[in-house]
Amino acid sequence: MSGSNKKKKMNRGVAIVSHAQTHHGILKNLTLGEMVFDTVRQALSKVGLTWQDIDSVCNAGVDLIDGKSISNAPLAGPSGSYQKDESKTEEDGIMAAVNGFARVASGSFDLALVYAATHGHTTDLEQWSRLLYEPVLLRPLGMNETIGLALQAADYMNRSGADSEDSARAVALSRDAATKNQFAHMRDPVTIKEVINSEEVCTPLHKLDYAATSDGAVALILASEEKASGLTDRPVWIEGIGNALDPYHIGRRNLSGLDACRVAMKKALDMAGLDDPAGQIDVFETSAPTGYHEMMLFEALSLCEKGHGPERIRSGEIGPDGKIKVNPSGGMLATNPPVTVGLIRLLEAYLQLSGQAHGHQVAGAKTALAHGSSGACMQSHTIMILSSEGL
Amino acid sequence: MAEDSKKDENKKSKTPEGSEEGAGKVRIKGYLNLPYDWTFGRCATVFFKGFRDDKKIWGTRCSACGMVTVPPYSYCGRCFAECREWVEIKDEGVLTNFVVQLLDYPGQPVNPPFILARIRLDGSDIDFTHVIGEADAKDLVVGKTRVKAVWREDRTGILTDIKYFKPIGSEGSGGSGGTD
Fold it and tell me: Does B75 touch chain A (CB under 8 A)?
């Protein structure tokens, strides 16, 4: 990796050494605990670990989706957390990995289990997401996540000239890619026409413009550099992390600019010592809730100039099969268990670099980026940059 | 001998027949119905008194960046600075963004479909979110259409004291959404 940016020194290296995930979909035959149990057991057994070997457990969940206060509490047993250092983040799943990384990098822990699991089907997310908004100043207007995403999409259209066909194309490309990913939820392709002709839910969004809700669970095992080499010959190193938050009040935001994503990206690149993402990173896995957001994220991640998203999706230059590879797994548009979705992005980045992505493997990928987001209209963004070689 | 075989019999694991086949079909409904009592605090109290008593919209200016925000907050969302200077905002401005909401779920101010918009009110530096009424979406032009508040007669000091904003004409230039 050559570049003018100098890599930041870390206390010690942290690698992802193992993983497991459910075949995402609508998983009504399993409880959340059963999904976690199966996934964690699989991740441990792949590298010959027992649950007692893990010394820290970090997870993510949202109480009001799970319908349980302190919703990690019932998962203590199935995650093997009994009497361990354990903590939950009430944000996107990728934040659990940031916490796991920090614990191992600190030197206080050697092996961290990171997991997230969501039953997206359990509750009415259109109603739940009303609670993302301030109760006195915005909620009386009936705001919810779909409306928020629609406002962002409309803002992006005004600014970039994107149209409904561009969003539909992003969706069609993702769904097409997902046919090659055996763990994806929506594995049947859709055409641009089908997306545009699907029911209008909140203009400019049609039903198929945005990610259908899934159920799913993922587990990753993070190891210190001292432990990693003894567990696998294909460790994948966490080289860069960036996280940033936009104002809560949507009036204070550049809605479609995703400013916090730009800042998070800069921080992650600086930490990894990179400065040319399109040239230096082989695979990107992003959390784009709609086709419009897929394009917004191309711009916020500096893969193209501001306003050039639509043109890049039309030319196919950026996409699952483009010159710049974004969401070869099918991304969030094909698999969307709320909260867990960002940790799936990290898992997919890991799969690519450890050569385990099978049908959607990007040949020779050595550096990958995962993006997760939380909050109303993507208030917070988290970026992790991984490398199979160490940067 | 007979006793031994009886022991073996007991050791054999027993699975109730067909027990896992019903998984996914057996479920129970649950509901959350929690009451909340949200306080308006020192800032929104003043803001909504203006709604109720005078049909006036007030914003606050950040003591650090100088931005005028409406609805107002006591603190700046970016600067971690106090916003205690009150600035009167006009109840009209330019439409900067809008969507037509078609989904039906509880908690909406009017039955869908309705237009939800961002409006750059005159005197404010950011966009105010509210409903647009007496309008056809196809006639609205972002950055051009001017809208004005339609106040309720029976105001109680809440956000929906403004029934909606209605179009009152257009102008040559305006905001483009966001604050940058």
Answer: no
